[in-house]
Amino acid sequence: MHRKRLIVAAALLPVLFLYVMYLPRGYFFILLSAVSLLGMLEFYSMYRVQGALRYACIFFGVFILAVSYFSREHLSEALVFSAMAIMVIRLLTKRDPLSSLHDIAAPVVGLIYIPGFLSSQTQIRNIGSEWIIFLYATVWAADSAAYYIGKGIGKKKLYQEMSPNKTVAGAVGSVAGGAAGALILKVLIVPQLTLPSAVFIGCMIGIISIAGDLVESMFKRDAGVKDSGVIIPGHGGILDKIDGTLFAGPLLCWVLMVKGLLR
């Protein structure tokens, strides 16, 4: 299984790097929309969202990302309108008021959790494709360090109820890996970052990517599934691969706004 993961990663990563770095930003929007679509399908399959609500959520997911890409100042209105529409669709398609909140909760959370969180990446891409590489590579460095350090010396469990394999040592490794990855990427592709800023951002990404991983584990345990999907051989589903990035993207977007790089 581990060998299959490495083979798939070795084949996909160079293609994705070239795609993100050298194609116009509209192509990244298309890629992000496809990832969002697949992620929502996985999420709604986990929670058995069917019928009109499922198809409406898919439409509104694309709508949210499109608003973020073309007119980000209206993103909050797009999220509110989408949630309102989901509530009205539940009202009109099922006359029984019982379990209405339950029926609405998963669709609305899915919209916020996937296209809502991913929308920050359209803004990050606007200041340069190198920042998208920085985001994903730093999360990858944090995840990799967490995995190998946790597997090697991890004893004490971090949060066994949500993810029995996560350890405190692995969490420390995530923070260290994020910092190390950010420092390397500062030298290679984002020299405008200062060393202290790179270390700070890397540590924060290392911390919040753990939170993203645990949140997805919480959803999967609640839904009674091991993996969110099987679309990537040896890697599980799309959500299994982007769980940390879903949380790290908004964080990086906010930091870049504070630093004045994103306007």
Structural notes for this entry:
It is built from nine helices and two strands; from the N terminus they run ααααααββααα. With 263 residues, it is mainly α. The chain has one domain. A two-stranded antiparallel ribbon has the order 1-2. A hairpin with a 3-residue loop joins β1 and β2. The mean pLDDT is 89.
Counted up, domains total 1
Oligomer category: single chain
Alpha-carbon distance between the two ends: 44 Å
Helicity level: over 70%
Query: How much of the polypeptide forms β-strand, as a percent range?
Result: under 5%
Spans of 5+ residues with little confidence (pLDDT < 50)? none
Count of DSSP strands = 2
Main sheet strand line-up: 1-2
SSE series: HHHHHHEEHHH
- The coarse overall form would be globular
Cα-atom radius of gyration: 19 Å
Average pLDDT reading: 89
Q: Which structural class should the secondary elements be placed in?
A: mainly alpha
Main sheet overview: 2 strands, antiparallel
DSSP summary: helix tally = 9
Indicate the topology:
Blueprint: H1 2-22, H2 25-46, H3 51-70, H4 75-93, H5 100-126, H6 129-153, E1 157-159, E2 163-167, H7 168-188, H8 195-223, H9 238-258
Helix pairs in contact: 1-6, 2-3, 2-5, 3-4, 3-5, 4-5, 5-6, 5-9, 6-7, 6-8, 6-9, 7-8, 8-9
